[in-house]
Design a protein that fits this description.
The protein is α/β, with parallel strands linked by helices and 412 residues long. The chain has helices spanning 6-20, 60-73, 81-85, 88-101, 116-128, 146-159, 172-179, 203-212, 235-238, 267-276, 278-281, 288-301, 304-323, 346-358, 388-411; strands spanning 37-40, 43-47, 108-113, 136-141, 162-166, 185-191, 216-220, 246-251, 261-266, 330-331, 338-344, 361-362, 365-366, 376-381.
Length: 412
């Protein structure tokens, strides 16, 4: 029986509107482990689109560690951390994560979450609860990830906070507004590495501003942890930063190759989040086997092998920046594995992605609302499992595809 009612009609009309704007996204099914070579819907493709920057997602040592964790702890945690779900594996993982940041945050303590999205929601809304309603100001970088944006929105609804957006490349407006701010609690919120452009936040400058105006600095280093710094400890290591007013967030499903995320900060802030961070308090704990596997991942990140993998990434980045020359498309300068190519229109980005797929490459088109209208792009990402030869072949393919797309646009 076919039925029709208003909500269903609205859903169907909204989806049709996405189709008209070339903004509908589609799931693709992979049939192989995450790697530089993948099987997608029964086809072999060279993937330049994952966030598995160090190539650890299918590392045999991590696979073994996950299996060992399952044998030791089972496959589920059974409850939230504050009930009965906090295992020895979680505790050991948090101790190891703390050791990564203790040079940068005195009296540091780490807290493990199931996802980066939940971490950001918990951190922003939890810290917002340190003050009275109406006594909070939040300063958020304009290009922050959706999880940070949503955390800010929830904090605004919860605490009647004042929100100011700032351009991370121009900090004058940030300082001008802070000069007039009389709120008791001020949060400056930024990505460490901006996920769509691959550029770094000016963390040192932001910290100086935070110190000058007595604010907390929240840094989501999702795309920096494991990649930046000699030991891969992230942007605080790379920038040689030390401060007790930094709330550092790292993701463990990208360069770390597994799943989850964490926040590391001064112990009092973490204890407050344990008590009042609702996504932490009310979520079932991640299976301990995952935490056990992550211990092996952190060991690799901190080892000679991790250094070698980061060196391979840096070699790929240099080849790309030196040799990838476009005639019309815009290449963004980035020192990270994120190397965007901006085409502009949704149609051009979709056509380029389709031609790349035909050529055996998986590089999806990134369109609004993920990026601003008129800045649709190919978000190319490198893995330590890519070779220099892989990259040279991609460069040749992209040069050929750019000519085809440009001719099509001119003809149209």
């Amino acid at each position: 029986m076919t039925s029709s009612f208003k909500a269903l009609e609205l859903a169907q009309e909204s989806i049709a509107d996405l189709d008209l704007q070339l903004l509908r996204r589609k799931l693709r099914v992979t049939q192989s482990p995450c790697n530089s070579n993948v099987t997608v819907e029964n086809r072999q493709l060279k993937a330049f689109c994952s966030n598995d920057y160090l190539g650890l997602a299918n590392h045999p040592d991590l696979v073994d560690a996950w299996s060992q964790g399952g044998q030791q702890y089972g496959v589920g945690s059974g409850a939230s951390h504050l009930i009965s779900g906090h295992s020895a594996a979680h505790e050991l993982l948090e101790i190891k994560l703390t050791s990564f940041q203790k040079k940068h945050i005195q009296n540091a303590r780490a807290l493990f979450f199931s996802t980066g999205y939940l971490t950001n929601l918990a951190v922003i809304t939890g810290l917002a609860g340190l003050t009275e309603r109406g006594d909070l100001s939040i300063y958020s970088a304009k290009l922050n990830h959706a999880s940070l944006i949503d955390g800010v929105r929830l904090a605004v609804a919860q605490m009647n906070a004042t929100v100011n957006l700032f351009d991370h490349t121009q900090l004058n407006s940030l300082t001008d507004t802070l000069t007039k701010d009389t709120k008791s609690l001020k949060l400056i919120v930024t990505d460490g590495v901006f996920s769509m452009d691959g550029d770094l936040a000016p963390v040192k400058a932001l910290l100086q501003i935070a110190e000058q105006y007595d604010a907390l600095l929240i840094v989501d280093d999702a795309h920096g942890f494991g990649v930046l710094g000699k030991q891969g400890h992230g942007i605080l290591e790379q920038e040689e930063i030390q401060s007790d007013r930094i709330i550092y967030i790292g993701t463990l499903g990208k360069a770390a190759g597994v799943s989850g995320a964490f926040v590391c900060a001064q112990d009092s802030f973490i204890e407050w989040l344990v008590q009042k961070g609702r996504p932490y308090v009310y979520s079932t704990a991640t299976p301990p086997a995952i935490a056990h596997a992550l211990l092996k991942s952190l060991e690799i990140i901190d080892s000679a092998e991790g250094i070698e993998r980061r060196a391979q990434l840096n070699q790929l980045i240099k080849i790309w920046q030196d040799e990838m020359i476009f005639s019309e498309w815009k290449k963004v300068s980035s020192c990270t594995p994120i190397q965007p190519v901006i085409l502009g229109s949704n149609a051009s980005a979709l056509m380029a992605a389709k031609l790349l797929d035909d050529a055996g490459y998986w590089i999806p088109a990134i369109r609004p609302p993920t990026v601003a209208p008129g800045s649709a792009r190919l978000r190319i990402t490198f893995s330590a499992n890519h070779s220099a030869d892989d990259l040279h072949k991609l460069i040749t393919t992209l040069n050929r595809i750019e000519q085809k797309v440009s001719k099509k646009v001119m003809h149209d």
